[in-house]
Amino acid sequence: MRRLNRKYKKELDFWINKWAKKLKKEWWSCDIPLLLKINEDPKLYSYQQRKEHEAKALFLRFLKEINMKNKAFLKNKIVVDVGPGPIGLLEASNAKLKIAIEPLANEFRKHNLLPKGSDVIYLSVPAENMPLLDKSIDIVISRNSLDHVDNPKKVVNEIIRILKPGGYFCLNVDINHPPMIAEPHRLTQKMISKMARNLELVMKKIYKDPHGWKGQMFIALYEKK
Long-range contact list for 120-124, CB < 8 A, 24+ apart? Predict the structure, then answer.
């Protein structure tokens, strides 16, 4: 197994000692009861069940973020999720083929973080070099991950390469935050526009509250013409 660098160690520590530790006792996300209309105490659910509900909530949030009212947006599609962590929205989707590009996937399996019985194919590879054919993917999702990768420009180029004509790139990323160990890039709206200049912008919006500690949340939906 390849040796984990400093950034990956920081990310793995978050998933093991913060995310999983909390999820073993309660909901990770405070909006779960509202999104999924659950009134019961989270302690009544198993760890596995709480993981499943987190995935369902992620899927609903994703649709809301890109102003997609059609819950069948991913249905019968070949979908790639870049950097979802140990559980992503694809777990709760009806996509035809679900692929997660996650460099830490082997570590997640080792630490029992991946959901049991998952139908998502996890590829433990960097997003800068995805082992997928040109023009083979219907939809690519990158939610809170583009500022985590080693080379954002190369990742976006890879996404454009694997997308089919008419395919969609769904982006959600924190911008304008200082570089940190796990998020080593200070992305700006101008930088993202330049990286995605060969795609057509369908919609975008910015929220003042980021995923992390500082910056803003930038959301965009692009189409490959």
Answer: 120/81, 120/88, 120/90, 120/91, 121/97, 123/99
168-177 exposure pattern, b = at least 16 Cβ within 10 A, e = fewer: bbbbbbbbeb
Tokens standing for 179?
Answer: 């570089």
pLDDT tens column, 31-47: 999 999 999 999 999 99
The contacts of residue 42 (CB under 8 Å, 6+ apart) are 25, 26, 27, 32, 50
Q: Tokens 């930088």: give the residue.
A: 191
Which phi-psi region, left, alpha or beta, contains residue 164 (left: φ > 0; alpha: ψ -120 to 50)?
beta
1 within a domain of the structure (yes/no): no
Residues in CB range of 168: below 8 A, 6 or more apart: 138, 139, 140, 202, 221, 222, 223, 224
Domain containing 95 — which CATH number? 3.40.50.150
0.90 exceeded by pTM: yes
Pairing of strands 97-101, 78-82: parallel
pLDDT per residue as tens digits for the range 121-157? 999 999 999 999 999 999 999 999 999 999 999 999 9
CA distance 204 to 176: 16
Which residue type occupies 4?
Answer: L
Any domain includes 124: yes
User: How many other C-beta atoms are found inside a 10 Å radius of the C-beta of residue 143?
Assistant: 22
- Structural domains counted in the chain: 1
Residue 31 structural domain: 6-223
| Helix or strand (DSSP H, E) at 166 | strand 163-175
3-class SS letters over 147-159: CCCCCHHHHHHHH
